[in-house]
Amino acid sequence: MKKLIPFLISSLYATTALALDPFVVKDIRVEGIQRTEAGTVFSYLPVKVGETLDDEKAAAAVKALYATGFFKDVRLETENGVLVVTVQERPAIAQVDVSGAKEFTKEQLKDGLKAAGLSESKIFDKALLDRAEQELKRQYFSRGKYAVTITTTVTPLERNRVGINFDISEGEVAKIKQINIVGNQAMSEKDLLSQLVLSTSGWMTWYSKNDQYSKQKLAADLESLRSYYLNSGYLEFNIESTQVSISPDKQGIYITINLHEGPKYTISDVKLAGEMLLPEEELRKLVKVKPGDTFSREKLNESSKAISDRLGNDGYAFANVNAVPEIDKEKSTVAFTFFLDPGRRVYVRRINVAGNTKTRDEVLRREMRQAEGAWYAADKINRSRERLQRLGYFTDVNVETPAVPGTTDQVDLNYSVTEKPTGSIMAGAGFSSSEGLILSGSISQQNVFGSGNFVSAQINSGSVNKVYSLSFTDPYFTDDGVSRGFDVYKRTVNTTSLNTISTYSTSTLGGGIRFGIPLNEKDSVSLGLALEKTDISLTDSASLPLKNYVAQFGNSASTARADLGWARDSRDSLTYPTAGGLQRIFGEVGLPGMDIQYYKLSYQQQYLRTFAKNYTLLLNGEAGIAAGLGNKPLPFFKNFYAGGITSVRGYRTSSLGPQDVDGNSLGGSKRLVGSAELMFPFPGLTTDKSVRLGVFVDGGAVFGPDDYQGRYSKVNFTDMRFSSGVSISWFSPIGPLKFSLAKPLNKKEGDHTESFQFQMGTMF
């Protein structure tokens, strides 16, 4: 006959337990298990066959079995010296289903449930179910759907299993109805609200989602407010509290921010102290704050970083620079002392690269500006990372500088990269207001066999320009970075569809070799030699100068073209530049001994500067001059043109400059173009860098050779055309787009204007 061990429950939950007479366990039997192995139960029992079971071991056994989470009831019984363990298993989850979800896919929600510990084949637990519901709500709250309701149904199934279904009623997205800022006196509420990403509903919030509350966004906005005040002199600024409330219908969010501004502080003195390894005069040039300035945390941090980076360039990798304040609350002034602790000078023992499963090590190492065995130089390490990023082979490049164990003056450089596909096969279409539909296709590999070499074949078909080309480039033809490339191309120009240009067509077949020579990190020289054969075809409506040229020199010509250029590129980005500049000179010469002899020289200067955080000023100027050589005129198909979305907006493409008697543009031998454009984020999309608005003023003209008749025969600034307007640049999913709406400012008789212009597939 079985006897229930009397102390079972009381030993677990009471301070006083009934005593058990210890007995020797002759055998152990487990009853009630369906899925759990008997061995699992045995492993948790603190007593084995032949050992004595007392009340302490029995209590420990019950606790251990409950703790597994497999059982919802555990009993210990004895039968003639046999310990009988009777359990009742918790049911297993046979299936998990989600219904009613629209904001998320079922897979996304099930992944969240799995992260919360609820998934098929797991043991069912009510507490776990509650956590799963909260996880689902959390996901919906992150999308602003605070009215979401979740109905959970647990259905018993055969073999002690259950099915769980979450029926979701998502509700509508809650929108921010009001943001109140309390306590501001020096700053207007309008200025403070402009610092926040979160906003009330507006005409672009359907896209930005900034009218949907997010705890993370609010935290970032509070830090933006703090930075705004601290950078404006309010040293004692503090955000005292924030309140977020939701309307009873859970559709409206109300945010209140309580802040304390405090007085505005000015800087009374700036000192340098500590171990100054550099001349104090040089260090003071790195300090961006001076007595009399309004306190700015941003400038203070920039000063500390600039000094630390400067010491890092000399090998002091762990330099520490702290700005210690001395506050005078009565006068609302603060003095700062920069304490310099350079630490030990260290050198780089070894450079390691990881993650490049395809790209050869040598391709990465040749971009390194920091050398092994040399003193640590922060600027060279950062430049190495930038050069790796600019290769275009990697989605991410990280660098770490761990200290070498057992040393105090050595570090290793560990560069880790994440490779991305570098080959592409593309087929696409673009549209230009000047050329109409443009069909294009290309196949390219930027990193052939991991060697860093570039190969591409391209087709670009437009109504005006058609290009077919094959190119190969070795960026490290020599160890010191001289590149070599080969090109074979066929280029066709047909101006028939451009109503503003005298009609002609040319077909050029050519091939050439080119070299690129880096002079330093920003400057490079390019040179090349190409052989070209050009066939010319004129229509009956072609202008007289074009007919005279063909009559004198024929409709077929060969050219040996030499190219030479220099460029300095300090822009911070090739796709979204906000600072730096570009300066380049490019010349091409048709060499003597061939049918066509000429020179063509172009110069461009571009300058970018960002101010007020999100506003970028772009200044661009271009000038060109060309002429024939060897007593031959400049071939008309080498003329310069201006007008259109890439030069002077508001005027039709290539329409500016000398014209024939029918009003068609002839192009010219001299070109002058300039632009000033202020670019800023699209309203409501301040954090989205893919869309930018701009306001601009363009100016430019083309001037003909001296033998051109009428206007524009010589450079005359009164012949310049100007325009102003607005632009939109968008890196869209289908490619870069550019739109402009411009108004000519000094239109004259015979000018061809075009207010709205757009282009797909290229950006200025």
Task: Summarize this entry quickly.
This is Outer membrane protein assembly factor BamA. The protein has 764 residues and is of the alpha+beta class.
Structure, explained:
The N and C termini lie far apart (94 Å). The chain folds into 6 domains: 87 residues, Ubiquitin-like (UB roll) (Roll); 78 residues, Ubiquitin-like (UB roll) (Roll); 86 residues, Roll (Ubiquitin-like (UB roll)); 76 residues, Roll (Ubiquitin-like (UB roll)), CATH 3.10.20.310; 73 residues, membrane protein fhac (Ubiquitin-like (UB roll)); 338 residues, Beta Barrel (Porin), CATH 2.40.160. The protein is built from 13 helices and 34 strands. The chain has 764 residues and is an alpha+beta fold. About 3% of the residues have low confidence. It is elongated, with a radius of gyration of 38 Å. A hairpin with a 3-residue loop joins strand 21 and strand 22.
Strand content: 35-45%
Quick one: overall form? Answer: elongated
Count of DSSP H/I helices: 13
What is the fold-level CATH name, i.e. the topology of the largest domain?
Answer: Porin
CATH class of the largest domain: Mainly Beta
Q: What Rg is obtained from the alpha carbons, in whole angstroms?
A: 38 Å
The number of strands is: 34
In which order are the strands of the major sheet placed?
19-20-21-22-23-24-25-26-27-28-29-30-31-32-33-34
Task: Please state the average pLDDT score.
Answer: 84
CATH architecture of the largest domain: Beta Barrel
Give the biggest beta sheet: 16 strands, antiparallel
Number of domains: 6
Q: List low-confidence stretches.
A: 7-18, 426-435
SS-based structural class? alpha+beta
Distance between the ends: 94 Å
- Percent helix: 10-25%
CATH-defined superfamily of the largest domain? membrane protein fhac: a member of the omp85/tpsb transporter family
Signal peptide: 1-19
Protein name: Outer membrane protein assembly factor BamA
Domain POTRA: 23-90, 91-171, 174-262, 265-343, 346-420
Function: Part of the outer membrane protein assembly complex, which is involved in assembly and insertion of beta-barrel proteins into the outer membrane.
